[in-house]
Amino acid sequence: MIIRLQREDFDPERAVQAIDVKGSGARVSFVGIVRDTAAGAPITALEIEHYPEMTQAELARIATHAQDQHHLHEVVIIHRYGYIERGERIMMVAVWSAHRAEAFMGCQAIVDALKTRAPFWKKEISPQGSAWVAGAMPHDLG
Predict the structure, then answer these.
(1) Which residue of 32, 68, 100, 133 pairs with 26 in a disulfide if CB–CB is 3.0 to 4.6 A?
(2) CA of 92: how far to CAs of 4, 23, 60, 112, 127, in Å?
(3) What pLDDT band is residue 137 in, cutting at 50, 70 and 90?
(4) Would you give the distance in Å from CA 4 to the centre of its chain?
């Protein structure tokens, strides 16, 4: 399991190309980017904040749960924080498994959990100003 929290951008293919997972027949990955609109209004960037130790621990729990549930051989999660402009990468999840169905389901489970359980706080920045995203507070912590 590899979990990286970082300010800087990343190259998704480079992040996984050196990983050799024996016995895997599938690799599925997802890359999230900053949209140019939110609720129909233009945004120019996101600002993402987090508590490093809390975030690292929760991402490890998310990855471990997905590995157990979907028989994943390996998981990579990269998530950025700080100021991220429209069109830039925010995060990446890559998983390896013996079969494609498990890989697809495992990747989706991790991405879904990142949206609801990971302790990231997001502020949308627009030409009109900025506002914290309602509901961006993780609800399953504690």
Answers:
(1) 100
(2) 10, 22, 14, 12, 27
(3) low
(4) 10
How far is it, in rounded angstroms, from Cα 33 to Cα 107?
Answer: 16
Average pLDDT score over the chain? 92
pLDDT tens for 77-122 read: 999 999 999 999 999 999 999 999 999 999 999 999 999 899 999 9
Full-model pTM: 0.91
CATH code for the domain in which residue 15 is found: 3.90.1170.40
Phi, psi of 14 (to 5 degrees): -65, -35
Determine contact, residues 101/69, Cβ cutoff 8 Å: no
* Dihedral pair phi/psi, residue 109, rounded to 5°: -60, -40
Count of the separate structural domains present in the chain: 1
